[in-house]
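Consider this one:
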Amino acid sequence: MELIGYLVLFAVALFVLLKSSDYFVDSAERLGLAFGISPFIIGVTIVAFGTSLPELATGIFSTITGNSEIVGGTVIGSNITNILLVLGITVVVAKKIVIPDSVLDKDMPMLLIASLLFYFTLQEGGFSVTEGLFFIAGLVFFILSTFKNDDDEEKVRSKPSAKDFLILVAAGAGVSIGASYTVTAIEKLSIIAGVPKDVISLSIVALGTSLPEVVVSVAAVRKGKQAIAVGNILGSNIFNTYAVVGISRFFGPLTFAENTIDYSVPFMLAVTFVFAIICLSKRINRWEGAILLLLYGYYMVSLIEST
C-alpha cells in the first residue's frame, strides 16, 4: 500500500509540475508581448526555458535535498527520450520531416558541442562550480547567437493583465510544490522498490518531463511547421544540458551514479550523433523514426536489466 501511495504521489506531483510549467510559460509569454518584447525573443528565452522548467525545478530541489543523482538522471534521460521517443513519434506521425539549413549550420553543432562538453566533464567523476559557470556561459552564448536571427519584427504592445500576473505567481508556486513532491516520491520509491534513484530519473521522470515536447512537436508537424518540431527538441536538449546541470550546481554538489557515467552518458552522446547523421540528408523518413523508437525500447530494457 505504501508503494501504491507514493506512486500516486509521484503521478500527481509530476502532473502539477508539468501543468504549472505550461501555465507559467503561457502567462510569461503573454506578459512579454504586452511589454513589447518581440515574439522571436520570447521564443528563444521564455518558451525555450519553459521546456526545461520541469527538469530545472526537479534538479534544484534534488540538489537541495541531497538527492543530486536525480539531476544527472533527469537531464541525460530527457535528452535521450527527446531524440529517440519524441523525434521518433513525430517522424512516424509526419511520415517525413524536412530539416532546414539553419539547423545543420548552427543548432546541431551547438547541441553536439554541449553533449561533448557534458561527456568529457563527467569523465572526471564530478562537476565543479567552475564547470557550472562554464555551462551557464555556454547557455548565454547559445541565446545571444540565436538573438542574431531576430528580424526586427514589429512589436505589438498591449496592457498587461493582472490575471496573467496572478497566474504567473500561482504557476511558479505550483512548479515549486510539484518539483518538491516529485523528488520526495522518487526518493521514497527508490527505497521501497530497491531501484536506484538515477534509474527512476533516467526512465520514468525523463519520460514524464518529455511529454510536453511530444505534444508540441506532433502538433507542429500536423500544422506543417516541421522546423518548430526539430527546433523544439534541439533547444530543449541544449537547455537541459547547460541550464539544468549548470544552475543546479550552485545549490549544492552534484553526484552521478557510476552506471550513469559509464553507460547512459555515452549512450546519450551516441544518440546525439545519430541524430546529427540522419539530419545530414536534410530529411528524416518514417523508417528512421521507427529505428529511433526501437533504440528507445532497447534503452528502456537495458535500464530495467541493470536494476
Remarks:
- The chain has a mean pLDDT of 81.
- The first helix runs from residue 2 to 34.
- Strands lie at 96-98, 283-285.
- The radius of gyration is 19 Å.
